[in-house]
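Researcher: Please translate sequence to structure tokens.
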Amino acid sequence: MYASQHEILALFIIALPIATIAWTITHEELFKEFHDSCIEKSKSCQRLYERKFFYLFTCEFCFSHYVTALFLIITRYKLLFPDWRGYLISGFSLVWVANIYIALFTLLRLDLRKERIQIDSTENSVQHKSKNAPREIHRI
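Model: Translation complete:
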């Protein structure tokens, strides 16, 4: 019943593309029009199941469950048990690890954005000072 090193390694490797796909579809500019359309439909559709269907494309956590299900079908990855219980445990484990990756990526992006804002602020401050500084007139 103990997980082998191969199963644990596979857990962390398979979670990478799950996190990547979930993040890309729910956040990146490549799918912006699709994302905006899903946000609108998740608020405007009349039926509850329609609103929930479109909402899943706006939430990386929700969407990662469906991407995980797809990857379980493709890879047939099972954790701890060779039957349906292995699929159940591996499914939730993959979602958990994938969402840890997403959280780490989000923190990294926030840190990079913070640095970019600080650099822009410093550059603007330097430019403002150089514009307002008295200019020396050199006579020959």
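Researcher: Any highlights?
Model: The chain has a mean pLDDT of 86.
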